[in-house]
Amino acid sequence: MLSCAKLFKSLLISSSVLFLSATSSFAATEAKPIEIKGEIIDTWCYLSGVMGGEDAVIGSAHHTCALWCAAGGIPVGVLDEEGKIYMVLKLEGEDTLAQSDNIMEIQSDTITAKGLHYVRDGVNYLVVQDVVANDGITNFNHEDFGAVPPNSFPKNYSAN
Amino acid sequence: MSNLKAKLGLILAASLFATSSIAHDGVVHSDIGEALKHQEQTSPNTLGFPDVKGGDFDLIDHNGNQRTSKNPNGQFQLVFFGYANCKAICGVALPSMAAAVDILKKEKIDVTPILITVDPERDTVDNMKDALAVHHKDMIGLTGSEEALNVAYEAFNVEKSLVYNHPEHGPVYAHGSFIYLIGPDGDFKTLLPPILGPDRIADVTKGYVSGAKS
After folding, report:
1. A47 touches chain B (CB under 8 A)
2. ipTM
3. Chain B contact present for A27, CB below 8 A
């Protein structure tokens, strides 16, 4: 956890524009029900770029680092199929904000979830009410980018 | 380091132009800041943001004085829950808060940075001041009884749990990771993910201080 934490400090880039909703609506004043499919990601490494480009900091290549980041308190996000990021505020059955042992079980997985979509200060937030499907880790990119830390991804991993 | 920054800058630039964010709803923006402002203007806050009611707390500051959620100086307050010895997320959030406060100060906007401890055994009146001064000279550390701290945790929906005991650094806690903006009277305004940079934190804060947002 600590080696990754040191990297957290190395650079803060105002890349929060990636959180932005690609659509705009003056009428978006109520939380909207949403069904979303996407990968649970480590928002720090994805947005800061400290660990490499976007393709390298998702999937199996980044799974272990993503677990460390989540354990260290970095909020997770859902990266949907359009490239939009939703900060996960709560998971189903959790009482507190963005703190969950359960998130460790689904980090890096591709999930389909129903929930409520909030917008605050230009940032998308998601309250997950129901994970309706979990495909496990579907992006096996550690062969392309190498795992962080090296050799941390199990060779015989199976989503099933 | 400069090479790394240059590389990361290119990565960021590439990622931005690879998305629709910089040219959403048909408007092309010349820079990120402009895009952010436009997005905020066109996507107002959702009403009824969930599960952060905020509320009064009554704690002890690093000088041993009582301090409640109401700021005696009448300033807005950026609040983070963590601990001075934290080597993880606090090391991201606290410097960002501090830098945001300095950015706002240059615009003649005074905002108070506050850490509410989740480790009162180590964060005491005697040692918090020096530990937090590393981040900002005006950062205020708050501690208190378990009961008083729990009131604050519950108000902001924060939970702490011991992860493990580090042989060198001591207990390592999981805890809340959002930065909260509260008003001079202690009323909750918004929360900010800790991964937002100081500029963005300052910009959002400024919107609430100026009354442009509520």
Report:
1. yes
2. 0.72
3. no
